[in-house]
Amino acid sequence: MPSKSLKDEL
Amino acid sequence: MNIFRLAGDMTHLASVLVLLLKIHTIKSCAGISLKTQELYALVFATRYLDLFTDYISLYNTLMKLIFLVSSFSIVWYIRHHKIVRRSYDKDQDTFRHYFLVLPCFLLALVINEKFTVKEIMWTFSLYLEAVAILPQLVLLQRTRNIDNLTGQYVFLLGAYRSLYILNWIYRYFTEPHYVHWITWISGLVQTLLYADFFYYYFQSWKNNVKLELPA
């Protein structure tokens, strides 16, 4: 699962 | 969430709302490249695939919905609205934007963080966003005269990505192992594409003259 930290950006 | 990112998102939101407002109030899309708007709709469609699967925050979900709805409605206005479509100058907006889609997709297949459908679509959307403004910049060069709403639209788009670069720098120094070269490089390329526009925009603002781009 890709790190949430990156995918929290728009 | 840091101030740079929030400012970036708000600037991005403002750019889209300025464009929607312009098209909706004066019922004209003169000077706007439909190609760029189609590319942006594709960027959001391929980047927000996780809209219903991964809930991150209300803010995140709300903004994704706003960007999706606004980008697709801008495309709809220019293509189908009986009055607006008449002001679309398809003879000038001739950038073959499909030539941007394929290389970005191939590059996403080769350079990505993980070879999964979602990750590849997400990476594709990053590369595509970096070049999506090209048809619009070409159109501005061609039509030369830039009405100030279009100028503001492009300016806000460039400002949003510049603020995101500050956000990435901030996160790099404040969050351990926050390293994402793909995002950073494509974001940097995107901002550099605006650089010359910024220069002329600033010059016209400083000398208080109408914005003119050299041929």
UniProtKB/TrEMBL annotation, chain B:
Alphabetical UniProt keywords: Endoplasmic reticulum, ER-Golgi transport, Membrane, Protein transport, Receptor, Transmembrane, Transmembrane helix, Transport
One GO CC term on file: endoplasmic reticulum membrane
Protein origin, superkingdom: Eukaryota
Location of the protein in the cell: Endoplasmic reticulum membrane
Molecular functions per Gene Ontology: ER retention sequence binding
Protein family membership: Belongs to the ERD2 family.
PANTHER family according to UniProt: ER LUMEN PROTEIN RETAINING RECEPTOR
The name this protein goes by in its record: ER lumen protein-retaining receptor
Species name: Olea europaea subsp. europaea
Top-level taxonomy: Eukaryota, Viridiplantae, Streptophyta, Embryophyta, Tracheophyta
